Amino acid sequence: MIRSVALAIMLGVLVSGVAAYTINSPGWRTPTTPPSGRLERRAETATTAEAWPICTTMASVASDADWAQLDPDFKAGKEALRAENWNGAIAAFEFAALRDPTNADIQNYIGYAYRRLRQMGPAIGHYQKALMLNSRHRSAHEHLGEAYLVLGEPAKAQQQLATLENLCLIPCEEYEDLKRAIAAYRRLATR
């Protein structure tokens, strides 16, 4: 009985902490407005000619305001991603990586840009480097799984999905996105 009460209290504290963080985080409530005064187009509104979604979680490109203020190259890389300037994003993030070589987010963004250029070798290398830096990086696991789908290796994508299932204690966007991508891949493969 005492264990159950203690567990309930700990879970309550955890949930209230997450809720407080989410509510106090200004990035989710307000869109980013650049100096031009017009709202930036978010990544999730972009359409691709892909048969399955290449990625829907890169909508977070609009966040990370703290990094953007600290590192102009990181900011330039994020802006290049929003503009779908993949080569520009790679160049900017490579400079940012020189200053912060242990940042898994930077490696993930570089991998994403390479994947959008259909350069799977460098993309996978950067995703793997992101995962070496942070083995729990959900976005890198999702993107790596999607890269494996592009290469026609659904079993490896399924391994990334299983890893995400273990990482996501509550439903997470990365798991759902990769699960949808795998399902779409399988539908196309059976045609």
What fraction of the residues are assigned to beta strands by DSSP? under 5%
Overall pLDDT metric: 78
What is the radius of gyration?
Answer: 18 Å
Instruction: Estimate the helix proportion, in percent.
Output: 55-70%
| Biggest beta sheet summary | none
| Total beta strands | 0
Low-confidence stretches: 24-57
How large is the count of helical segments? Answer: 9
Topology (SSEs and partners):
Layout lengths: L1 H23 L40 H6 L1 H11 L3 H14 L4 H13 L3 H14 L4 H13 L3 H14 L5 H17 L2
Helix pairs in contact: 3-4, 4-5, 5-6, 5-7, 6-7, 7-8, 7-9, 8-9
What does this structure look like?
The protein has helices at residues 2-24, 65-70, 72-82, 86-99, 104-116, 120-133, 138-150, 154-167, 173-189. It has 191 residues and is mainly alpha-helical. Helix 5 (104-116) packs antiparallel against helix 6, helix 5 packs parallel to helix 7 and helix 7 (138-150) packs parallel to helix 9 (173-189). 32% of the residues are buried.
Supply database-style keywords.
191 residues; mainly alpha; single chain
Short description:
The protein has 191 residues and is mainly alpha-helical.
